[in-house]
Write a structure and sequence with these properties.
single chain, binds (2R)-2,3-dihydroxypropanoic acid, seven-stranded parallel β-sheet, alpha/beta, 320 residues, five-stranded parallel β-sheet, 14% strand, Rossmann fold
Length: 320
């Protein structure tokens, strides 16, 4: 008998075929829309494996209804959507997809940093709205990237990959992390800093740490006040790490210069969200890892994790 698996989003055929070969597969057939909670609650009761996205809240109450469940394979590196301790208590293995999305997410982080510093979306809209009447000396002036100081909060794989890119722009790089990363310091000429020092000295503050109980609201009123008036905050990690109300006020009152956000506390972000009313915010819809190649690799890694556990083996990327 094949193990039963539920897949929470339609994925490319090659992934579906691979899963169907080894499992009795059921799935939510939309590519865009997340599976409704009621459907997930029903489906999870039966299955041995769940292949899910970061949009699904895999909490204790859901896990308590899953009597056969052996594995939750998350198609993301972040797993703040899953109650890891509840899964552990139930003996359910949780897996993620690290490594394959590092460079793509670092590319996007740097693109967002540049777009925010040089006001690229605003400048493009300016032109298309017919506002460009003449070249003028201080028109749409932004902040320099080359030679500035970048402060990276979270020196894991993606932090290192962003630092590597910053090296090419002759940036001075500070970082803050739970543990010092001596190897990265030596390789990339990074300087370790306490959070306060990093916030005070950086021209760009880049949030690249996972969302945990410890990092929730890590950047709030006090931290934003420490940043330079010309400072730019970039967040491509998770929304909850930066307090959005505090960020709104810091931007509105010009305590900081701009922000580039790929992630929000509530996703999709409401069009009524106050941050979306500010001209000095560049927003993206959580597309850090969104290249065709990388998203396919993430699906492959999640598939491998899931199938290994269902085969009674250790998966390549267990978490918690
Ligand atoms: C992740 O993997 O955690 C990203 O946020 C989506 O790629």
């Amino acid at each position: 008998m094949k193990p039963k698996v539920y897949l929470t989003r339609k994925l490319p055929d090659e992934i579906i075929n691979q899963l169907s070969e080894k499992c009795e597969l059921r799935m939510w057939s939309s590519e865009e829309e997340p599976v409704p909670r009621a459907v997930l609650e029903r489906e999870i009761q039966e299955v041995d494996g769940l292949f899910c996205m970061l949009t699904e809240e895999i909490d204790r109450s859901l896990l308590e209804n899953a009597s056969n469940l052996k594995v939750v394979a998350n198609m993301a590196v972040g797993y703040n959507n899953i109650d890891i301790s509840a899964a552990k208590e139930k003996g359910v293995v949780v897996t993620n997809t690290p490594g394959v999305l590092t460079e793509t997410t670092a590319d996007l982080t740097f693109a967002l940093l540049m777009a925010t510093a040089r006001r690229i979306p605003e400048a493009s809209t300016y032109l298309r709205k017919g506002k460009w009447e003449a070249w003028s000396p201080m028109q749409l002036t932004g902040q320099d990237i080359h030679g500035s100081t970048l402060g990276i909060i979270g020196m894991g794989r993606i932090g290192e990959a962003v630092a590597k890119r910053a090296r090419g722009f002759d940036m001075n790089i500070l970082y803050h992390n739970r543990r010092r990363n001596q190897e990265a310091e030596d390789k990339l000429e990074l300087q370790y800093a306490e959070l306060d020092q990093l916030l005070k000295e950086s021209d760009f503050v880049c949030v690249l740490t996972p969302l945990t109980a410890e990092t929730k609201n890590l950047i709030g009123v006090k931290e934003l006040r420490m940043m330079k008036k010309t400072g730019i905050l970039i967040n491509t990690a998770r929304g909850g790490i930066v307090n959005e109300e505090a960020l709104y006020h810091a931007l509105k009152e010009e305590d900081i210069w701009a922000a580039g956000l790929d992630v929000f506390a509530e996703e999709p972000v409401s069009l009524q969200h106050p941050l979306l009313t500010l001209p000095n915010v560049v927003t993206l819809p959580h597309i850090g890892s969104a290249s065709v190649t990388t998203r396919l690799k993430m699906a492959e890694v999640a598939t491998e994790n899931l199938l290994k556990v269902l085969d009674g083996e250790k998966p390549p990327h267990p978490v918690g």
